[in-house]
Amino acid sequence: MISVLKSGLMTTIQDTGRYGYQKDGVIVSGAMDPQAHRIANLLVGNSADAATMEITLMGPVLEFQEDAFIAICGGNLTPMIDGDSVSMWKPLYIKKGSELRFGQPKKGFRTYLSIAGGFQVRKVMGSSSTYLRANMGGFDGRTLEKGDQLRFGHLDSQPQHLKEQLKTADKALSFKEASWFVGPEFTNYTKNDQPIRVMPGREFDLFTEQSKEDFFNGPFQIDSKSDRMGYRLNGTALNLENKKDIVSEAVTFGTIQVPPDGNPILLLADHQTTGGYPKIGQVASIDLPRIAQMRPGESVSFSPITHEEAQRLLLEKEKNLKQLQRGIETKLR
């Protein structure tokens, strides 16, 4: 059991999403940063779709009522256990009674807390993900609040040597870190110092030549009114060559639509199922985790990429993640 002593800015339970229901108007939702969510689960021996805690900018204060095996991956929100700094991107063995809190955010916007066995919440339509607008899924369909109690899987389901780590931990510390960690080739994406790679959207050719140029020259600023549904981008207005009625059609995570005011909207994990605004671009899947770590007020710029190159990079990343998974599984035996 974990007790929530302080809620944080926006803390929810998420998994890989609620698939198969978009035809009925039910959104996918799921973790904003699928890479951090996935690696966090791998580090504690969970399946990639196990429920994690998505923590946004200002983290919660959590008290562990049992020994636990956890990992923290994503943006660096300065995690601490009983006042001592702890490392990210590696397994942590925590003793009963320990308190996890977060300090000053250093890099990124969202981080993910995984725990062996996953967070135990009731699934809705096959998913544990929270969809706040519909009060669906997660912990009672809402953000976590002070006083909440969360159940999780137990160390009994993990290899015996993991539990032994807790017994041999330094008596002065309430946690023990693994000696190994995930390398920078999987973690450096949170720096966000390069343009986001975008494929031309279905209506790209309907925009003026100047607007096409402005789109890729940017930059755009992420508006404060942005949320998990989408980032509103402020910058040079993008215009169509001629006004044209667009039939509503399916949209997805990373679709960039342009409403009549000319300011793009970059759709995120809680995006609607269909959209009727012209689509100027689609963020390459490999860069979706980078988008998730950007904060309102920050600038974002775009660079073109072909479908073929985007697919090649995604397949290469998946191959590397599979190799990482095998390496972690060997460490956890």
UniProtKB/TrEMBL annotation:
The keyword Transmembrane does not apply. Gene3D superfamilies: Cyclophilin-like (2.40.100.10). It comes from the Bacteria. Residues 23-320 form the Carboxyltransferase domain. GO terms for molecular function: ATP binding; hydrolase activity. Keywords: ATP-binding, Hydrolase, Nucleotide-binding. InterPro entries: CT_A_B, Cyclophilin-like_dom_sf, PxpC. Coiled coil: none annotated. SUPFAM superfamilies: Cyclophilin-like. NCBIfam families: urea_amlyse_rel (TIGR00724). This is Allophanate hydrolase subunit 2 family protein.
